Amino acid sequence: MQILSRFLGFLSIAATALVIGATAVNADEMSSHGWEVQNYNIKGTWSIVTEGDTSYVVLSDDFRTRNAPDLKIFFSPLAASDLTDDNATEGSILVSQLESNKGGQRYAIPEGVDLSTFNSIIIHCERFSKLWGSSSLPNTDA
Predict the structure, then answer these.
(1) What is the rounded CA–CA span in Å between residue 121 and residue 66?
(2) What DSSP character marks residue 102?
(3) What CATH class is the domain 31-136?
(4) What DSSP string runs through 3-47?
(5) Closest CA to 131 of 96, 75, 85
(6) Would you say 84 and 132 are in contact if contact means Cβ atoms under 8 Å apart?
(7) pLDDT tens string 54-105
(8) Three-state DSSP state, 91
(9) What is the spatial distance between Cα 5 and Cα 9, in angstroms, rounded to a whole number?
(10) What distance in Å separates the CA atoms of residue 85 and residue 94, rounded to the nearest whole number?
(11) Which of 5, 10, 62, 133 could form a disulfide linkage to 42, CB 3.0–4.6 angstroms apart?
C-alpha cells in the first residue's frame, strides 16, 4: 500500500510538471493546421510553437508526403490559394530543407522573421520548381 501511495504521489508531481511545461508555450501557437492546397498528397498537420526566444515549425508524427530530392519549407507572402509552381518562392523566406518525407519534425524559424508579413506556409521542391502543398498561416485572411 505504501508503494502504491508513493507511486501515485510521483504521478501527481509528474502530471503537474507537464502542465507547467505546457503553459510555457502559447496555446494559440499549439493548434494544428492541415494542408489546404495539395498538388501532391500531404498527410498530417503542422503547427508553430514558441519556446523561449525561438519559434519552430512542427510537423506532426503522422506527417507523410511523396519523396522528392529537394523539398523545403517556406513562408510565403501570397495566400495559399494563389500559389503556383511558378510563384511559390517569390518573396518567400526559407525555413529549412525537409529532413524527411515522413514523421514528426521540427524546424527553427530563422531569427528576425516577422510572421505577420506572410500569409502561408509551403512545401516546395526547389530543384524541379514544384509546389507540393500549402496552408494559410493563422491570423491571416488568406
Answers:
(1) 18
(2) B
(3) mainly beta
(4) HHHHHHHHHHHHHHHHHHHHTTS-HHHH--B--SEESS-EES-EE
(5) 85
(6) no
(7) 999 999 999 999 999 999 999 999 999 999 999 999 999 999 999 999 999 9
(8) coil
(9) 6
(10) 16
(11) 133
